[in-house]
Amino acid sequence: MHCPVLLANGLRPLWGPDEGRYVTGALEMLRRHDFVGIWLNDEMPHFTKPPMTYWTIAAAIAAFGPSEFVVRLPSALALVGATLFLLPAGRLLTPRLPALPAALYATTWLPFIAGHVVTTDSLVALFTTLAGVSFLYLQAGIAPRRSAIALWIAYGLAFLTKGPPTLLALPVFVGWLAWRRDRAAMRALWLSPGLLLFFVIGLGWYLLAERRFPGLLHYLVGAEVEDRVASAKFGRNSAWYDGVVIYLPTVIIGAMPWLPAWLLLRRRRAAAPAEPADRLLLLWIGIPFAVLLLARSRLPLYLLPLAATFALWIARRLEPVAAAMPPARRLAALAAAALVLVAAKVGVAQLSPADRDGRADAEGIARLEPRPIDDIVFVDERVRWELRFYLGAQLRQAWARRTPYEPAYQVAPTLAELLARHASAGRRVFVVHPKSVTEFERAVAAAGLCPEALGPVDGNIVYRAAPGTCAPEAPHGA
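Request: output the structure for the sequence above.
Response:
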């Protein structure tokens, strides 16, 4: 069940921008031996997410060395872990086939795809799945003290991975206990020592980071929570209709192949009457989904933490049919679903989009500048952070003609400021937006350097700049 997610995880190059940023942050942690600050280079902190994802990538690199397979290992293992957490949930909700929810989750497209991507969402799904399964045991009255402690620890780890959005299901759980007037479970939840552990685990890093970087909490609450939820500043599909545009295909494709299988079987069999567990699962999916739909920042993997709940719900729908099948037929269906996913994984690895392929960009720059590169400056262009992994160079961003395109804890300097601050940076190349070439050459010349165009890479112009004044061009015909 778990092996397919590891297959082909190293075939695909790193894709920008997200995979490159997370890996760069992890590499900088290891280089600086700093596991509180999150840095993209030697002077720019980066706090769009808490540190858990960076920590896990850094731990994998430290243990096994850098490779595309290794940096994706935390996401792959998070899928394996979430699958294993669903086994005890299956004993409660699908007792005839306890392994069915885990098997469906492991072969559903959305979580399987996420296991092949460097992202925060796979770890969030791991921790929120543990929290959800712990709640199922808590509300069932099974080991309520241990269940509550496990729930709060899981939510603390989730909060340390992605902050407040990881708690979307918690009001559902509290409301469910209140509606059922389950005072014993409420006491176990709110009087649990796990609540203290949640604050220590979930908030400890934030306090340490705020002490080192004054104003960080204000930025995290203002830009990374309020602006992402209520504004279009980050350009994450913020139009009123984008919730449908982004999430409808995600649900249709991400729930393959089990949602279509259930719909097909449902036409042939009478629907079973809803039970309290079914209502809980629907609320657990529906209320967080509604919040994500209304928020102004929308990406497909934001739905990933709901995939485990979907697996539980769909498993309850499919259990009567699956239980009536011969075991060999059930295994054949799961094996076929896994083989399709692995084949798709291998195919995608051969079709990397040119504007996101970090390996191809690194090879292009290395052809133009074969000497070791210490510093790469992106001028009026998105930084290809994945080049840090492939070329080992410090990556920077500077503005010559344009302005920053999204909020950041620390905005990149102008090109003139960068050149004044880093007058000598060893072997440096510039990756310049084509429309900014004139401004770039003028700023470099003003800094006492001679720009030399090396050639194009991915639609941009690569330059080096040597100290001194450029020699005048010889007249034509000389």
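Residues 3-349 form one domain.
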